[in-house]
Amino acid sequence: MKQRIKEIDYLKCTFILLMIVFHLVYIGDKYPYAKQLVYTFHMPAFLIISGYLMNINKSLRAFLHTMVWIFIPYAIMESGYIVMSAILPVRERVEELSFGIWIEKLLLHPLGPYWYLHTLMVCGITYFAVDRLTRKSRDPLVLPIILSLIYAAESMRLDIVSLPNALYFAMGCVMQRYGLRFTSFFRPSVWSVIPFTILACFPENLNKSVPGGIAITYLAVSLTLTLFRFLPARMKTICAYIGSHTLVLLIFSPVFTITVKPLAGMFGFDPSGMLFLFTALAITVTGCFALAWVIDRLHLSPFFWGKQTMLQPFPGRNDKLTEK
Predict the structure, then answer these.
(1) Is a pLDDT exceeding 60 seen at residue 51?
(2) Rounded Cα distance, 176 and 303, in Å
(3) What is the Cα–Cα distance from 107 to 118, expressed in whole angstroms?
(4) So where does this one cross the membrane (predicted)?
């Protein structure tokens, strides 16, 4: 069995759950400052991890095969999201449906959380191409400089990707390219809670594009890794399992974050909103895994995910996961 790094899967689990929580409109509206804080670091951290894990040591055919099987579930779910945005009273509303609008949203400006997969594909293909062009260069600065310049052009000229998002992705790529261990760069430290709290108290820092926001992202990862040390072994295993299936949660979670909206009224007696939060989160996570299980059982995974089955067996005592 392919070995995985528990800390990274744990981080992916944490950040995907935070994404789901603050895609619950009721929670986002109830805790706007917390939402702004979480939005400062959770997807930037996810993009750094994505760049770090991007495997470009493949043939062109194998790499494009990987991209195709990201694009297919992305295209299916983004298309559904576009249609629903034209029907339901959502914030990212599409005023009218047309072929042109569908192509524009699908290929250039996706709606909902699927922008992440769009960014992953654009940045990943660019990274693969730049790596092939600069592989023979002995200057370690050539790849990050050229990669950053192309990302800037894709952002400012082509408008197909956000430059801050692309640069966070590039950070992970550079770490991986030059052999820097993730947990050597993002060092766990309980003391990170102090500067994190101080920075979080000032609204001007709650922006992933400013120095304060970059610092918050680093400190959030450091603090989250610190908490990992205190988790029971069973909880680490559960987090690792969820973290290894973040694509399932990203793809299907909008179906459930929309579906659970009426529950907010049922839990109106709880002014904190926590009962709704945990109930909605449990339903969303369970529902996402249930949909993936159904697709596996119907033998549709080869056509949706590009693999025989999407869900991996839950790790047993003899399954190997590494901590690094």
Answers:
(1) yes
(2) 31
(3) 8
(4) 9-27, 39-56, 68-88, 114-130, 185-206, 212-231, 238-260, 272-295
